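#structure-requests
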Amino acid sequence: MLIFRFFILSLLAFALTKESVKAGIIKAGEGQLITSIRAAIEAAQPYDTVEVSPGVYRQGNILIDKPLTLNGIGYPVLDGEKQHEPVSIRSPYVTVKGFSIHASGHSSMVDIAGIKIYNTHHVSIIDNILEDNFFGIYAQEVKNGYIANNRITAYGKAEQLIGNGIHGWKSDSLIIENNTVTGHRDGVYLEFVTHTEVHHNLSEKNLRYGLHFMFSHDNGYRKNTFSNNGAGVAVMYTKRVVMQNNIFTENGGDAAYGLLLKEITDSRISHNTFSYNTTAILMEGSSRVHIERNAFEANGWALKIQASCSENTITLNNFIQNTFDVATNGSLVLNNFDTNYWDKYEGYDLNKDKTGDIPYRPVSLYSMIVEKYPMAMILFRSFMVSLLDRSERFLPSLTPENLKDNTPVMKAFAL
C-alpha cells in the first residue's frame, strides 16, 4: 500500500498564522510531485493512506470519492473560509483522522458541515477537532458509521443560525462515542436512525438540546453527560429506547427539563442521574416505559407525568431533595409507582421489613396549584402551603387518590 507523505516546505507550517500555508511540493509514491490534498487524493489508489503534514490548508471542498484513509499529522488545519464544506465523503471504507477543521460555509438552504458523509457505508471519523462550523459531523443515509473522539465546538447565538454538532439522518448502525460537543443547536441529533449506540459523550452548553432524536428506534444511549443545555434532552416518536447510566444535569429554565419523553413506547430508563434540572423527566403520550433505579436529586420537579401516559412503571428509584416529587395534569391514574425511596415520606415501619407501612402519595396539593398558577411559587415554604399539603395528605380530595406508592422503602437505594 502506498503511503503519501506531505512535506510542507514553508518554515511557517507550524505557526498556523493567518497567512495561508501553501501545500508546497509534496512527495508522493514514486517521486511524483503533488501540490494539494485534493491532487494527492486523486493520485491515490483505493485503500491507500494519505498522510498530511502540519499546516493550514485552504483548498475549498475536499471530496473523498474512493476508499482510503486521510490521516493528519499534528492536526493540520482544513479551513473552509466560511464558504465551503471542508470535507465531503461519498465513498465507503473511508477514515478521516487527526485534522482540525474550521469555518465551514453557512446556508439556510443547504446543510453544510465540517465533515459530511453522503449515502455510503463503513466510514470512520476519529480524533478530529471541529470548530466554528455550521454543522459539525453530518451522516446522511449512512450505514455502519463510526464517530469517535472528536471535539466539536461552535459559537451559535441563535438556534436558526447554527446546525447540530453530530447530525444523523436516515442512517443505521452508527456508533457515536467519546465525543465532546459544545455551542451547537443540538449536541447530537438523530432522525430516522436505527440500531445505533451513543455512549461516553459529553454534550454541554448547546443552544437547544444536548440530545434530540425522533423516529429513531432500537437505539441505546449509555454513560453520556448532558449538562447545561438550553432545554435538556428530547426524545420523540420512538420505540424500544434504552437509556442507561447517563447524567442529566443543570438544564434549567421555564421550559427546560433533563429528559422529555414524548410518544415513547416499550423503552427502559435505568441507572441514570437527574440533578439540578427544572424538571427531571417530563412524559407526554408515553406507554410501557420502565423507569428503574434512577437518582432524582435536587430538581424542581422530579417527574411530570401527563394524563396521556399509561402502563408505565416507576420503581426502585431515589427521590431526594426535589422541590416536588411528582406532578400530573389529570385524576385518572394508569401508571404504576412501586417500591421507591421518597425522602419526604413520613411513614413508619413497625414490622422492620424496610418498607413503609402506609402508602406515600407523591403528588402534593401545592404542586397541582403551581402547575396551574406558576406565580404561586412565591408562597413556597410558607406555613399556609405546609398546612394545605398536610390537610390534603390526611384527607385527599383534589390530588389523584390512586397515584401512590404502596410499598415505599425506608432507606435510599445504592444505585
